[in-house]
UniProtKB/TrEMBL annotation:
Subcellular location: Membrane
GO molecular function: transmembrane transporter activity
Composition bias type Low complexity, residue spans: 224-239
Organism phylogeny: Eukaryota, Fungi, Dikarya, Ascomycota, Pezizomycotina
Compositionally biased tracts (Polar residues): 240-252
Span list, region Disordered: 222-252
Domain of life assignment: Eukaryota
Protein's name in the database: MFS general substrate transporter
One cellular-component annotation, GO: fungal-type vacuole membrane
PROSITE patterns per UniProt: PROKAR_LIPOPROTEIN
Main localization category: membrane
Keywords assigned by UniProt, alphabetized: Membrane, Transmembrane, Transmembrane helix
């Protein structure tokens, strides 16, 4: 039976909403690598691993998470998002169950290669599943990408807290139970979410395509015809950009605005009520069209991907920023448990192992919760800024500033009771960073190649995070000694307090200072470019 346009729109709305919910559930199992500090100290203690060896295992998780971005993106872009989630579900289960077997078997039974491979699989699974969820949300809601991607991004940040809280309730002080929960939970949640994940195609969707100058007159004529034939519809046609500030600030998402204008010119039917994320047929005056042209020129930006991507200055601008800040954040995320261990051994020699483990899990939870808040705030907040004529890039300035403050605290706080200031600010800044980045990449290079583009971008933290983590591990090992614990087992202990890791944070402090300067330069460059384009097109429009 033939369905009306309204019925089709309602069905698409339901599918889009279900896909966002599914993507959010999938993402809730994709950030478990950030709970590494909750089980790694017990893992290292039982298997007699040094801090450097432990960080190497953690680094392989990061490597899988970030280096798999390009091949995972190619799979998702070519075969569809469900293929990425299916692969991720299998890898997550294999990785965590291998780590569980290694822990249960005890020291010497599994080599470093096997444990690093298992950690790599957890990162690969997280990457492909998460990339698929982000691809669907960014594609299905083109005009609200910050908000739509903010939900799965927020869930990704909350993932470590979600599993840590369940592990604390079901398997207190039991790393084996925690790893088993991760294996079962991540596999089941991603597999179920995959069933409801799909990309919705709409007639109104358009890509970034070139509009030659010679077509401008035909577009103007099309606008005039639609204006005369659809004047009766003006009162019932919704315009999502009518109240938007288009004064020419650098942050205006000009390609998206122009796509909306062209959709308005070619089809102002008002046949159905628009839903959030649709590219609606909306009424705009010819002066609005001219003003938008003056912001971006007569040609719309094509989608950029593949080798063309790496030849753009903007790609390297984003790449360097992500490398600096993600490396800073991951060092604290992977080592907050070691921070707590070192500070409590120095601050209170009577602190029991179980007490310190509970503090470690507390800080993992704090990191996760604040990462969730940061991701949600920056995704929605960047949309708010954009719709008022500001650039999303200002969110990166704030993120790098918060990172800088966190490094200062890490260099000065020696009382473990105040360690929450470091974990909360680090989680918040890291969440803000990744909460806005997918929207920035989609805006800058287009949504059709989002999988590959985001995969290229996630290579950025591979070198920086590995370098910072290994620096931290080598510094901690240099201050640690082998001692017998309360149970009579040998373990590496550093009782020098903040001196155990102090020098590592000088490195991340320098990186944070560079990131603040770099983000401000990026905003200034964007504003200068917008001014030049605006001046050029205003001059061209006044020429006869």
């Amino acid at each position: 039976m033939h369905r009306s346009k309204a019925e089709i729109d309602r069905a698409q709305r339901i599918t889009r909403i279900m896909s966002v919910v599914a993507g959010t559930c999938i993402s809730l199992s994709c950030g478990t690598n950030y709970g590494f500090s909750a089980w790694a100290p017990q893992f290292a203690e039982k298997l007699h691993l040094s801090a450097t060896q432990t960080n190497l295992i953690g680094n392989f998780g990061n490597l899988g998470m970030y280096a798999m971005g390009i091949p995972g993106g190619m799979l998702i872009d070519s075969r569809g998002p469900r293929w990425g989630v299916a692969m991720g579900s299998i890898c997550l289960g294999l990785g965590y169950f291998l780590l569980k077997r290694a822990y249960d078997a005890g020291p010497g039974e599994y080599g470093m290669v096997t444990m690093c491979l298992a950690s790599l699989l957890t990162g690969v699974g997280s990457c492909t599943s998460f990339s698929a969820a982000i691809k669907v949300c960014a594609t299905n809601w083109p005009k609200h990408r910050g908000t739509a991607t903010g939900l799965p991004l927020g869930a990704f940040g909350l993932s470590a807290f979600f599993y840590t809280a369940w592990a604390a309730a079901l398997f207190p002080h039991d790393a084996s139970g925690y790893l088993g929960l991760l294996g079962f939970g991540t596999t089941i949640m991603t597999a179920v979410g995959m069933l409801f994940l799909s990309i919705v195609s709409t007639e109104a969707e358009t890509k970034y395509t070139s509009v030659p100058r010679k077509r401008e007159e035909s577009l103007d004529r099309a606008f005039s015809r639609n204006l005369s034939t659809n004047s009766s519809n003006r009162s019932r046609v919704s315009s999502p950009t009518r109240g938007r500030n288009v004064s020419g600030r650098s942050g205006v998402n000009t390609p998206e605005l122009i796509r909306e204008e062209i959709a308005s010119l070619l089809d102002v039917s008002g046949s159905s009520s628009p839903m959030p994320g649709d590219i609606d047929a909306a009424y705009h005056s010819s002066s609005e069209l001219s003003r938008n042209r003056s912001l971006s020129g007569p040609e719309l930006k094509r989608d950029i991907t593949g080798w063309a991507l790496v030849r753009t200055v903007k790609f390297w601008q984003f790449f360097l920023m992500l490398a600096l800040l993600a490396g800073v954040g991951l060092m604290t995320i992977n080592n907050i448990g070691n921070n707590a261990n070192a500070l409590w051994h120095h601050f209170d020699s009577g602190a029991t192992k179980k007490f310190i483990q509970s503090r470690q899990m507390l800080h993992v939870s704090i990191l996760s919760i604040f990462s969730f808040l940061g991701r949600l705030a920056s995704g929605i907040g960047s949309d708010f800024l954009l719709h008022r004529g500001f650039s999303r890039m200002w969110t990166l300035v704030v993120s790098s500033g918060v990172f800088l403050i966190a490094q200062v605290f890490a260099l000065t706080i020696g009382d473990p009771n105040y360690l929450f200031m470091i974990s909360s600010l680090s989680g918040l800044a890291y969440g803000m960073l990744f909460g806005v980045y997918p929207a920035l990449i989609a805006d800058a290079f287009g949504p059709s190649g989002m999988g590959i583009n985001w995969g290229c971008m996630t290579l950025a933290p591979v070198l920086s995070a590995n370098a910072f983590n290994l620096i931290y591990g080598s510094i901690l090992d240099a201050h640690s000694t082998l001692e017998y614990d309360e149970d009579g087992h040998l373990e590496r202990i550093c009782d020098e307090g903040i001196a155990c890791y102090h020098n590592a944070y000088w490195v991340t402090l320098a990186a944070s200072v560079c990131a603040v300067g770099w983000s401000l330069w990026c905003v200034a460059r964007e504003e200068a470019q917008a001014r030049r384009e605006r001046t050029k097109w205003e001059r061209d429009e006044h020429e006869p």
